[in-house]
TrEMBL record:
Keyword field contains ATP-binding: yes
Molecular function per GO: ATP binding; ATP hydrolysis activity
SMART domains (UniProt xref): AAA (SM00382)
Gene3D superfamilies assigned: P-loop containing nucleotide triphosphate hydrolases
Record flagged with keyword Nucleotide-binding: yes
Protein name: ATP-binding cassette domain-containing protein
């Protein structure tokens, strides 16, 4: 695939741990692909294999159709952020990037360009050792952008960032994808990917659990759900449940209702004298969609540490 990243049947074992167990997916140009799964699901290992830092027991990973290690000018093909802490602390931000640029035959003009792009122009001559975590992440992203590559792969870029930093990265990733780049960004928190991921590759225990567009995922989960705001949630729940709806509390004065149309809900509540203030189609967060998506995946529940709950439920 031109410019994208392909991962095919990757398997990797570390001692007793099967870190990758048939991991396969593609990262297409022009969109942000979120790579999500609980701690230990195999995200970092996959990225290390893509970069040729770990050798898979089976399978292959390609960048723009070729193994990363065979690329003549890798930074021009794939930019990556694996560990933002991996810096020479005594070097200034600018010198760090100049050194990288030199090793890859990139012009120094790119250094000033990417420093501006990540908002570090004013800190360029400060030592990276004194940088906050957020500034280190920015510097790591600057390094990933140095070769102006068509593909980017960022491991947990939101880690440790304040809300402003998170907003900034989201906007940057969106603009990079809008410019036609393939962008893979990992996170163990679905909420971090809210509003930025166009596509999701959800992983658990070394393999893909779901590979889906975000819009279709959210639409599918939201379908047929109505949020009802009411000052009498208990009465409303009783009336609507009696009419065959599935009703869940979604706040002190709101219910999420499935199985009845908006008109039917209004008719039942009005007919039974239950007051309500507002009806709206349910807005699904990525977090909710993620839980829904993984609800039936036993391996996932286990990964999320809910084995105890399952056991309790089974014993009921
Ligand atoms: N070098 C290694 N030696 C031994 N085990 C490893 C090594 N690298 C990864 N693992 C194990 O492989 C599994 C997958 O780890 P990996 O770091 O790829 O997961 P992850 O999805 O990136 O998790 P996190 O969100 O915590 O970064 C884990 O059980 C981890 O302990």
């Amino acid at each position: 695939m031109d410019g994208g990243i392909e991962v095919e049947g990757l398997r990797k074992r570390f001692g007793a741990t099967q870190a990758l167990d048939g991991m396969s997916f593609v990262v297409r140009p022009g969109r942000v692909t979120g790579f999500v799964g609980p701690n230990g699901a195999g995200k970092s290992t996959t990225m290390r294999v893509v970069l040729g830092l770990d050798r898979p027991d089976a399978g292959r990973a390609l960048v723009g159709g070729q193994p990363y290690r065979s690329l003549a000018e890798p930074l021009r093909r794939l930019g990556s952020l694996l560990d933002a802490g991996a810096l020479q602390p005594s070097r200034t931000a600018r010198n760090h990037l100049l050194w990288l640029a030199q090793t890859q035959g990139l012009p120094p003009s790119r250094v000033d360009h990417v420093l501006g792009q990540v908002g570090l122009a004013d800190a360029a001559r400060r030592r990276a050792g004194g940088f906050s975590l957020g500034m280190r992440q920015r510097l790591g992203i600057a390094a990933a952008l140095l070769g102006d590559p068509p593909a980017l792969m960022l491991d947990e870029p939101f880690n440790g960032l304040d809300p402003e930093g998170i907003r900034w990265i989201r906007a940057l990733l969106t603009s990079l994808a809008a410019a036609g780049r393939a962008v893979l960004v990992s996170s163990h928190l679905m909420s971090e990917l809210e509003g930025v991921a166009d596509h999701l590759v959800v992983v658990g225990r070394g393999r893909v659990v779901a590979d889906t567009g975000v819009r279709e995922l959210l639409d599918g989960v939201a379908a047929g759900r109505v949020t009802v705001r009411t000052a009498a949630p208990s009465a409303a729940e009783e009336v609507l449940a009696r009419a065959g709806a599935e009703v869940r509390s979604s706040g002190p004065d709101s219910l999420t209702v499935t199985g009845l149309t908006g008109e039917a809900i209004v008719a039942r509540l009005t007919g039974n004298g239950v007051p309500f203030a507002e009806l709206s189609s349910h807005r699904v967060t990525l977090e909710e969609a993620y839980l829904e998506l993984t609800r039936d995946a036993a391996q996932f529940r286990a990964s999320l540490g809910q084995e105890d709950q399952e056991t309790r439920e089974a014993g009921r």
